[in-house]
Amino acid sequence: MKNSDLQARFNAIRSNKIFELFVVSIIIFSALVIGAKTYNLPTYLESTISVLDVGITLFFLVEILIRFFGEENKKNFFKSGWNLFDTLIVIVSLIPVSDTEMALVGRLIRIFRVLRMISVIPELRLLLNSLLKALPQLGYVMLLMFIIFYIYAAVGSTFFLNINPELWGNISVSMLTLFRVMTFEDWTDVMYETMAVYPLSWAYYLSFIFFTTFAFLNMIIGIVVNVLEEERQKVRREEEAVKNKGQPTLEDLEQQLNGIKLLLQKESH
Fold it and tell me: What is the DSSP letter of 72?
């Protein structure tokens, strides 16, 4: 059998939706096996889980090999960061570290196998890529949020220090208190405590909640959604470009029509 035939067969397997679903199910099962190890189990169950863990690792090795041999250009396989991540996780999982000082590292690597679901499911990759591309814009929003936190923490330390030093003792503790307010974790208790001394301090809390919880968080959501939509449009354009590869575009047709018009005009003259 020719190498091209083998490559085509491996590519057909890795592109098969049933195979993708099976890989996802194994990843989920792997996560359940890792979770089971955190319980106190009978000896026979621990042995069974160890065997299952070895079987899962071997399956991931076979799956990586299928994806590698299914790649038309083998060099392109390692140009993908996700492929490198998957390969590293599988290779490290193959190293026997159960009775060595690297046992903790081995367990951590097996935990990270759950992240392989991102590399397998395109939608999850799209979400993560969108989040990473949104980070520069989110950085400015987070900087502005930090400034608001800092100002309100300084005001809180100035006015509320004598009321409750544990919550407003210094600016760092005050920022933690404001984070509690932003997440609505018993924030009314904090507010009513200061209102007993400063009746109008409710305006301090409500304005802070408006800026952080409502304004800034909605800005963050808006940025992520906008970048996600841009990424989806980019993927659609790439898919359309692949489908229309070799077919004439509107610009090509327009140029051909212009050429025909010029020929007709020359013949008429």
Answer: S
User: Please, are residues 67 and 14 in contact by the beta-carbon 8 Å criterion?
Assistant: yes
Instruction: Please give the distance of CA 116 from its chain centroid, rounded to a whole number.
Output: 11
C-alpha–C-alpha distance, residues 187 and 75, integer Å:
56
Tell me the C-alpha distance between 174 and 148, whole Å: 12
Residue type, 55: G
Q: How far apart are CA 25 and CA 46, in angstroms?
A: 21
Are 124 and 118 in contact by the 8 Å Cβ rule? The answer is yes
Determine phi and psi for 244, rounding to 5 degrees.
-90, 10
Cα separation, 221 vs 184, whole angstroms: 19
Q: pLDDT for 32-88, tens place per residue?
A: 888 887 788 788 888 888 888 888 888 988 988 888 888 877 777 877 778 888 888
Q: How is residue 4 written in tokens?
A: 């091209």
CA–CA gap between residue 75 and residue 264 (Å, rounded): 51
Asked if 37 contacts 52 with a C-beta cutoff of 8 angstroms, the reply is: no
> Locate tokens 């889980």: which residue?
49
Say how far apart CA 115 and CA 220 lie, in whole Å. Answer: 24
What is the rounded radius of gyration, in angstroms, for the C-alpha atoms of the chain? 29
Question: CB under 8 Å, gap of 24 or more: what pairs does 124-128 form?
Answer: 125/82, 126/228, 126/231, 126/232, 126/235, 127/228
User: Which amino acid belongs to residue 147?
Assistant: I
Reported pTM: 0.64
Q: 80 phi and psi, to 5 degrees? A: -90, 125
**What's the number of CA atoms in the CB half-sphere (13 Å) around residue 261?**
6
CA–CA distance, 42 with 85 (Å, rounded to integer): 34
